[in-house]
Amino acid sequence: MKKIAIYPGSFDPPTNGHLDLIERGLKLFDKVIIAIMCNPSKTKSGLFSVEERIEMLNEIFAGQKNIEVDTHHGLLVDYAVEKNAKAILRGLRAVSDFEYEFQMALMNRRLKRQIQTVFLMAGFKWIFTSSSIVREVASFGGDVESMVPPIVNRKLREKYGTT
């Protein structure tokens, strides 16, 4: 049986930090499902539509059969069970991420004990990279080319009119 992990997030936009975590996750799991989670309490509306995020991620990982891009509304652990996943993959950049991630992991464990949460530390190169910082810098015309895949950089420039 394949070892499947779900990597949930908003991916608005996908960053090189996300890609690094996915690539390292594939060293532990046979398949990683990138799940764009729609959480109304976290964000009212994103910069990119869910469809745009799916399109970008599918282009970034085109041809990689061990990566699936999907979206989900609802409890992550229910989705993990539906996808036969054994783990939820999460990244930690700094101590500030830990408290929130720890609470979520404990709640997920309480809801579905068979689903494990696996934390990977962000690669040192990406420790200060986040989607929100990338969006903010790009919105002011700043150069984020080194922080995001080429398609994402192009889409950000189109979105903010800085092409």
CATH topology call: Rossmann fold
- Strand proportion: 15-25%
Helix content: 25-40%
Averaging pLDDT over every residue, what do you get?
93
The coarse silhouette is globular
CATH homologous superfamily (4th level) name: HUPs
| Name of the level-1 CATH class | Alpha Beta
Largest sheet: 5 strands, parallel
Number of distinct helices: 6
The sequence of SSEs as H and E is EHEHEHEHEHH
- What's the CATH architecture? 3-Layer(aba) Sandwich
Question: How would you summarize what this structure contains?
Answer:
The chain is an alpha/beta fold and 163 residues long.
What does this structure look like?
It is a single chain. It contains six helices and five strands; from the N terminus they run E-H-E-H-E-H-E-H-E-H-H. The chain is globular. The relative contact order is 0.20. The chain is an alpha/beta fold and 163 residues long. The model has no long low-confidence stretch (mean pLDDT 93). It has one domain (4-127): 3-Layer(aba) Sandwich (Rossmann fold). Helix 2 (50-60) links the parallel strand 2 (31-37) and strand 3 (67-72).
